[in-house]
């Protein structure tokens, strides 16, 4: 257990996820006799039971809400177990509601109480703000605890590795706005979905946005040398450094960048050969 503030603790729980991460963070927001549980990705009941015992160390507050930052399995597959033991409803943004239902059907047949997340939660003496911030998924949320200067950002920042954004759920323009929201949140500490807490939320968001924008410049420069499809770009960008398990997310993140660059008019997409993958090239260079 790692304490982020007077009212927020982080639990780094081993979870099947993407390298370089091998854990997904659960957070417990607590005040007085009440608590909010945020995310749980593992289905290992021993690990989940160990996590539940942390509540005793916190004075045994009653979990009144289980919040999913987004629907992805490495953040939600443990939620049915948490609900079964706390009787608290699971909350998710309406844009991720159907996808979460589908994800949880893969791990349980039990009847689940899932509701649309409100704009805020009020615990005893503590208000928790909920912001709809699409980017990683359409229904991604941030949870802000203004009195503590803490923002829980799901998969919009990472304490280790990077963040992937991929269509159809992910949108790079939305993601840049999400990073800007973190910078303007007036919160100093960010709790990411994976890895250690970030003690300068604004700087972490700025660095990640600059990294993504730098990737776009790299893509434009590579395409100026000649047309490429997604597979060719991924090979040129990552060389031999990409783990096989992460190839599909690299593909989708590059696609998200390409879609944005097409919208901006900086590159063109060529779908003229329907038997081949679309090719991309710098604007004005297709004949």
UniProtKB/TrEMBL annotation:
Pfam families, A to Z: Lactamase_B
Classification via Gene3D superfamilies: Ribonuclease Z/Hydroxyacylglutathione hydrolase-like (3.60.15.10), Winged helix-like DNA-binding domain superfamily/Winged helix DNA-binding domain (1.10.10.10)
Domain of life from the UniProt record: Bacteria
SMART domains registered for this protein in UniProt: Lactamase_B
Annotated ranges, domain Metallo-beta-lactamase: 23-194
The name this protein goes by in its record: Metallo-beta-lactamase domain-containing protein
Source organism: Alicyclobacillus ferrooxydans
UniProt lineage: Bacteria, Bacillati, Bacillota, Bacilli, Bacillales
